[in-house]
Please model this.
Amino acid sequence: MTAPVRLAVLGAGGRGADAYGRWVRTHPDRARIVAVADPDAARLEALAGTTAARYADWTGLVAELGRLRPDAVIVALPDALHVAAATAVADAGLPMLLEKPAAPTLAALTDLAGVVRRTGARIAVGHVLRFAPFWRAVRAVVEAGALGDLATIEVRENIGFWHFAHSFVRGNWRNTAESSPMVLAKTCHDLDLIRWLAGSAPRTVASEGSLLHFRPENAPDGAPARCTDGCPAAADCPFYAPRYYLDALRDVTGHPVTMLGGDLSPAGRLAALRRGPYGRCVYHCDNDVADHQQTLLRFPSGLTATLTASAFTAENTRHLAITGTRGQLHGHMESGEIRVDLFSPSGRLPDAVLGSLPGVELVESGTDGPLGHASHTLVAHPAPESGPGSGPSGRGGHAGGDDGLMDAFCRAVVDGTVGSGELSFATALDSHLMAFAAEWSRSGAGVVDFGRWSGATSGSASAGPGQDSTPQDSTVRRAR
Model:
C-alpha cells in the first residue's frame, strides 16, 4: 500500500482549507497535511490540527521545505502572491498544485512562464472543472465525434446575485489591482473548458461588459457605509448582508461564512459584519471589476463560442449548449443533466460515455422532432463526500471537480507525472491568455487577433516586473 502523500499547504482559506483540505480530511489513506501557512491564527489552527507544523507566513514554511520533506505543495494564497510562492516552490524542486488564476496580471503570467522554462517546474493549475463528472461526460461526447463538427459553444456562467456580492463586491476578488479582472478570477474556468472542448486556441477574441450596478450612484437614498448601520432600504435590498450571513446561512459553518472569521456564533457573525468587509454596503465598496461580461471567440475550424458571465442571476451554476453538424448538447451543471440529440439515424452515444465514466448514468432515451431523431439524457453524479464545506447534499465543490482534481493530483504525485498532460502549466496557459485578451478587448481594444496577440505577449516574459507588456495596436483588428 502506498503511503499517504505528504502535503504542505500555503493558505488556509476557502480553497486551501474548505476545498483541498477537506478532501485530505476525508481521504486519510491518500494524503496528509504536514505543514500549513496562514496569517489568520484561527484558520491556521483549524487546518493544521495537532499534527501539522504551523507558520504565520508562507515564506517561513518554504524556507523549511527541506526539513519538512513534503511530497508536494498546495499554493492557495491570495492571487497577488501566486507567482512569488510558485517561484519559491519551483526553486525548491517540488511539484505543486497552484490555485487559479496562476497569475493575476499578464506581466506576472509571463514571469511565471519564464520560471517554468528556467526550472522545469512541475505545476498543476487548479482548473477543477475538467475533473468534474459533468464536464468529463461532455468532453467524451464531443471527443468521440457524436456531435459531428462543432459549430457553436455557449457557456453561461450564472454567478448568483448573492455570490457575486460576497466575492466580487465585498470580497477578495472585488478590485482588479488587489486580485485580477473578473473574466480571469471567475471565468478562467469557463475559458479553459471552451479551449478544452474546441481542441485549439481561438483565432480571435472580442469582449464587452462593464461595472453596471454596484456603484455609489445606485445606492438607495440614505444608505450608510454598512448594512448594520441602520440602512433604510434593508427590507427591500437584495444584498442586505445580515439576511445572508445571519439568516440564510445560519446553519452553515463552512465556506463562505468562514470568511467572516473564527467566531461563527450569531453574535460573532454580527460583530464581523460591523467591522469587516462583508458588512459593507454593496454600493459603497472599493470594487471595480465588471459585473457582467460577454466574450465571443472564433476558432480556426469555423467554430464560434460565447461566454456570458453575469452577477444578476437566480442560479449559481453553469449552463452549456453545443451545436454540431450531427447533433446538439444541452447541459446544466448543478443538476448534472446532459441532453444529447443525435441527428443521424445511425447516431449513438459513444462507449466512452456509456458505462465507462464514473458517476455518469443514462437515465432516458427516446426520439424527438419530425424525423424522430435519437435523444438521450445523461446525469452526472459527483461522488458523495462528508464533512464541513462539502457543498450541497454532501457533494464536493464545483460539481465534484475539487475532489476530482485532488484525486488526480495525488495520483500524479505518486506517479511522478505532475506537470504533464492535464496537470501541466502549459495546459492552463491558453485560458489565462484568453482571459487577458478578453479584458483588453473589453477595455477598448476591439477584436483581438489572438495568434498575433499571444505571440507578442510571449516575448514579454523578458520584461521585468512593472514593465509594460501590452502588445502594440497592430495586433488587433478594430471592431467596426
